[in-house]
Amino acid sequence: MKLSIPDTIAAITPYPPGKPIEELEREYGISNSIKLASNENPLGPSPLAIGAISKALKNLHRYPDGSGHYLVRAIAEHYGVEPEQVVLGNGSNEIIEFLVKAFVEPGDDVITSHPSFLMYQKFVQIRGGVNHVVALSNMSHDLAAISDRAGERTKLIFLDNPNNPTGSYLPRHRLLDFLDRLPEHILVVLDEAYVDFMDETLRIDTTSLLPPRSGRCGVVSLRTFSKAYGLAGLRVGFGLMAPEVAACLHKVRQPFNVNQLALVGASAALQDQFFYQETLRITEEGKKTLMAGVERLGCRSFPSQTNFFLIDVGGDATTLYEAMLRQGVIVRSMKAYGYPNYIRINVGTAAENGRFLETLQSCLAECGYA
């Protein structure tokens, strides 16, 4: 066989997902490990979602509702938009793919930040678009530099707000001023995967930015059920946007892109406000405990409006990561993101948080960082 691989595909490095706990335990010969590396919900999935999924199992021989009728309407009601403004995805990352497919042609420009979610750039590469990557400034999106970079061929700008991996956020006045400066042919995509964890006084009502307005760029909001609702394994997210934008995305969306269990689980989770609020409470309390704990150990923690935060460990992050892994505590080294001395952790249960701090203290001493 002799393959003819397009240059755009050959140049892509596959996305490196975090390894599951089971694989790491086999690889390192450890057991009873805890994982604080993937920003998952420590409480598990919504109990209402589990119940709804259990009832739906008997219907797995049927195709799912290709339109996601009930979930779309539940989301629309919850966020105060019209059903025509909602697009469902197999995770919110699929909505990113839809946007690039629908609006980016070979040679078109897309602007992203670094560090940020790697899949923005990979989808653009697949389409033959041109990635323009702007470095974060003081761990936040450099809106002035992004605005200066935008031009006639710019189709999309991706901004994760809050940002992953830094946990920083965009103040409302800065974002609105930025949107007003952009040409109206550009779509700004606000990836709000972690917005549920933000201080409510700092959140931006992005639904008010969705209606088309003459002279201003378009806005799309991306959301997910993976984090605050604990449904990462189901892969279900959605986008909120103007109906004209949604109509374009439906043209490139495959039928049945969200499976039946994801549809019923997400619908139930959206109604489980007790679980949702408990997740936010546990996360905020745990974050305060963890930040205070790492500071006592001589490390520096960074403010975050998410369920995770960065820690400057004062030495090579990957060396510390491996030391902690051997003790069954899985964190994320930020060396590949341009922060060689930083690790990132998400908030766990109280027991997991305590074990992390104990292991961090031990491994800091082992590595000679403390």
UniProtKB/TrEMBL annotation:
<dbReference type="Pfam" id="PF00155">
    <property type="entry name" value="Aminotran_1_2"/>
</dbReference>
<keyword id="KW-0368">Histidine biosynthesis</keyword>
<comment type="pathway">
    <text>Amino-acid biosynthesis; L-histidine biosynthesis; L-histidine from 5-phospho-alpha-D-ribose 1-diphosphate: step 7/9.</text>
</comment>
<comment type="similarity">
    <text>Belongs to the class-II pyridoxal-phosphate-dependent aminotransferase family. Histidinol-phosphate aminotransferase subfamily.</text>
</comment>
<dbReference type="InterPro" id="IPR015424">
    <property type="entry name" value="PyrdxlP-dep_Trfase"/>
</dbReference>
<feature type="modified residue" description="N6-(pyridoxal phosphate)lysine">
    <location>
        <position position="227"/>
    </location>
</feature>
<dbReference type="InterPro" id="IPR004839">
    <property type="entry name" value="Aminotransferase_I/II_large"/>
</dbReference>
<keyword id="KW-0032">Aminotransferase</keyword>
<dbReference type="InterPro" id="IPR050106">
    <property type="entry name" value="HistidinolP_aminotransfase"/>
</dbReference>
<dbReference type="InterPro" id="IPR001917">
    <property type="entry name" value="Aminotrans_II_pyridoxalP_BS"/>
</dbReference>
<dbReference type="InterPro" id="IPR015421">
    <property type="entry name" value="PyrdxlP-dep_Trfase_major"/>
</dbReference>
<protein>
    <recommendedName>
        <fullName>Histidinol-phosphate aminotransferase</fullName>
        <ecNumber>2.6.1.9</ecNumber>
    </recommendedName>
</protein>
<keyword id="KW-0808">Transferase</keyword>
<comment type="subunit">
    <text>Homodimer.</text>
</comment>
<feature type="domain" description="Aminotransferase class I/classII large">
    <location>
        <begin position="33"/>
        <end position="360"/>
    </location>
</feature>
<dbReference type="InterPro" id="IPR015422">
    <property type="entry name" value="PyrdxlP-dep_Trfase_small"/>
</dbReference>
<dbReference type="GO" id="GO:0000105">
    <property type="term" value="P:L-histidine biosynthetic process"/>
</dbReference>
<dbReference type="InterPro" id="IPR005861">
    <property type="entry name" value="HisP_aminotrans"/>
</dbReference>
<dbReference type="GO" id="GO:0004400">
    <property type="term" value="F:histidinol-phosphate transaminase activity"/>
</dbReference>
<keyword id="KW-0663">Pyridoxal phosphate</keyword>
<dbReference type="GO" id="GO:0030170">
    <property type="term" value="F:pyridoxal phosphate binding"/>
</dbReference>
<keyword id="KW-0028">Amino-acid biosynthesis</keyword>
